[in-house]
Design a protein that fits this description.
The protein has 203 residues and is an alpha+beta fold. The chain has 3 helices and 10 strands, in the order βαββααβββββββ. A hairpin with a 6-residue loop joins β6 and β7 (159-163). It is globular.
């Protein structure tokens, strides 16, 4: 499916650059951020997510909130179905209303990287109108803890930009850009949590 991670060998519809990676800091107010972080730290994690399909892909924790895993209800398109599923999680649904703009939801989930988990360079989508919204919910993060998100050029052989997992930062980028979540340092006492919305822009 288009919103599954894809290998970097697939070519994007146009060249992308660092300017296509948009950062929005202090996205939630303090109370909202703390509520979101506490919720994401809570129960409901499953183990076994991976960022690409290769046999060497590292596994990590995830929480699925909405999207392609469920069979659509008769009469609903996949976007309406995903947004209905998200309604079971009021805090996440409220954030979706803040970030959605002129887009429709494809999938929503959270990833949790413990020390030792490694991502793989991948694209989130082959769709030219597909975007990823990535949120860092932590209340604190230190440079020595690592865990940056790196964005690569089309060939995947050079870095376009690195995004620090700054607490309460939202990152918006085209799903076609190759990227990877780097592992966290052994000094980091936290699970590296990200909340992800994969979306399609409305025509």
């Amino acid at each position: 499916m288009l919103d599954r991670a894809t290998a970097i060998q697939s070519k994007p519809s146009r060249p992308y650059g660092a300017a296509d990676v948009e950062l929005i800091d202090d996205f939630l107010n303090n109370a909202e951020q703390e509520q979101m972080y506490q919720f994401l730290q809570g129960p409901g994690w499953s183990y076994g997510a991976r960022s690409h399909a290769g046999n060497d892909a590292s596994r990590y924790w995830f929480k699925h909130f909405a999207g392609f895993w469920e069979v659509p209800t008769a009469g609903l398109d996949r976007h309406t179905q995903a947004e209905r599923e998200l309604g079971r999680y009021p805090l996440v649904e409220a954030m979706w209303q803040k970030v959605r703009g002129r887009s429709r939801l494809l999938r929503c989930y959270a990833n949790g990287y413990p020390t030792g988990a490694e991502g793989g360079v991948h694209r989130d989508s082959k769709g030219a109108n597909h975007y990823t919204l990535l949120y860092y919910p932590h209340m604190q993060w230190r440079p020595d803890w690592a865990g940056e998100t790196l964005f690569f050029n089309e060939r995947g052989d050079d870095v376009l930009c690195a995004v620090y997992p700054k607490p309460n930062r939202l990152v918006r980028f085209p799903g076609e850009i190759p990227h990877v979540a780097r592992g966290i340092s052994r000094m980091c006492p936290l699970l590296r949590i990200t909340l992800i919305f994969k979306v399609a822009l409305e025509n």
